[in-house]
Amino acid sequence: MPAASATIDSDDERRFVPLLGSAALHLWAELPQEVQRTLFEHAVVIGHRSERDESLREQLAQFLHDRHIRSQQKAD
């Protein structure tokens, strides 16, 4: 696998990051639990880089819980 470029075009990042995030959210309930957990933890870490609110983890969990039946069933 080729090495990733050290620099990312900010225009590309602004364009593709939301698309990838939306795709992951759309497929969330179909993803294996371990993949869900990994994506969730990465989102929390990334979110804490720009957000000081320590309730981010709980807010993100509630967001997913409210929108995905599979997440709701796992939490019960």
Count of helical segments?
A: 4
**Main beta-sheet strand count, sense and barrel state:** none
- Unreliable spans are none
Strand content: under 5%
**DSSP strand count:** 0
| Approximate helicity band | over 70%
Assembly classification: single chain
What's the Cα radius of gyration?
A: 14 Å
Give average pLDDT, whole number.
82
Give the CA-CA distance, first to last residue.
41 Å
Basic shape: globular
**What is the succession of H and E elements?**
HHHH
- What class do helices, strands and sheet pairing give? mainly alpha
What is this entry, summarized?
With 76 residues, this protein is an all-alpha fold.
Overview of the molecule:
- This protein is mainly alpha-helical and 76 residues long.
- It has a domain of 46 residues.
- It is 72% helix and 0% strand.
- It has 4 helices and no strands.
- The longest helix has 18 residues.
- The N and C termini lie far apart (41 Å).
What secondary-structure arrangement, pairings included, does this model have?
Blueprint: H1 10-27, H2 33-50, H3 56-67, H4 69-75
Output the keywords.
4 helices, 76 residues
